[in-house]
């Protein structure tokens, strides 16, 4: 059974009142070994067969996206590669005398995933919720800075990128506070958090 907790939104509603929204309490992570073992128990494939197929799928996904394609897996979702400049390269400004970025300056910075409706339906079907016994906390004091960094690092092991809103919702921070703190983490190499994109398209990724 999954648990949820109520968390305060960063912005008040039209009446100026703070409102709460439900957030899933994550219970660890089902990794490749666990998934392979589970599928092997449900099918005629061995655990090794499943691991091999998943590895082949990963390599084929990388190849197809490397050719400039998005990849759609029925019942799962669509994977779309997103480009970014290398960390040591500056963006083009559009001015005639500005440096023009060539292909060597550009990399696949992240891969976006959009879930199929069927996957959402199946997840809902398998999701039996109960409210967490953990009390709601109104401020960012719910987690220490070190805990917030750890939660962000864990989030990025499960998602290709993180937005400021994701970080704010994850840790119960106001948007401005979340933006400043994420910027601080990105400036510290030991945080293992970097950036991709710029301006309104800026996201945070694993280094």
Automatic annotation (TrEMBL):
Write out the GO MF terms: DNA binding
Query: Transport as a keyword?
Result: no
Transmembrane regions listed in the UniProt entry = none
- Per UniProt, residues of the HU domain are 2-131
User: Keywords in UniProt for this one?
Assistant: DNA-binding
Query: Which InterPro entries does its entry note?
Result: HU-HIG, HU_DNA-bd_put, IHF-like_DNA-bd_dom_sf
Q: What NCBIfam families does this protein map onto? A: HU_rel (TIGR01201)
Q: What is this protein called?
A: HU domain-containing protein
Protein species of origin: Bacteroides cellulosilyticus CL02T12C19
């Amino acid at each position: 059974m999954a648990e949820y907790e109520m968390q305060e939104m960063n912005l008040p509603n039209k009446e100026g009142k703070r409102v709460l929204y439900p957030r899933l309490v994550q219970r660890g992570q089902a990794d490749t070994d666990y998934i392979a073992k589970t599928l092997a128990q449900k099918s005629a494939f061995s655990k090794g067969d499943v691991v091999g197929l998943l590895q082949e799928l990963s390599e084929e996904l990388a190849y197809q996206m490397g050719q400039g394609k998005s990849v759609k897996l029925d019942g799962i979702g669509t994977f779309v590669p997103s480009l970014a400049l290398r960390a040591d390269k500056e963006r083009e400004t559009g001015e005639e005398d500005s440096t023009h970025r060539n292909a060597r300056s550009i990399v696949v910075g992240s891969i976006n995933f959009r879930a199929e409706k069927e996957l959402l339906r199946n997840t809902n079907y398998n999701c039996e919720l109960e409210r967490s016994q953990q009390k709601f906390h109104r401020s960012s004091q719910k987690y220490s800075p070190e805990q917030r960094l750890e939660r962000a690092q864990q989030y990025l092991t499960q998602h290709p990128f993180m937005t400021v809103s994701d970080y704010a919702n994850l840790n119960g921070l106001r948007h401005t506070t979340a933006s400043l703190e994420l910027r601080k983490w990105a400036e510290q190499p030991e945080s293992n958090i970097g950036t991709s994109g710029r301006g309104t398209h800026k996201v945070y990724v694993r280094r």
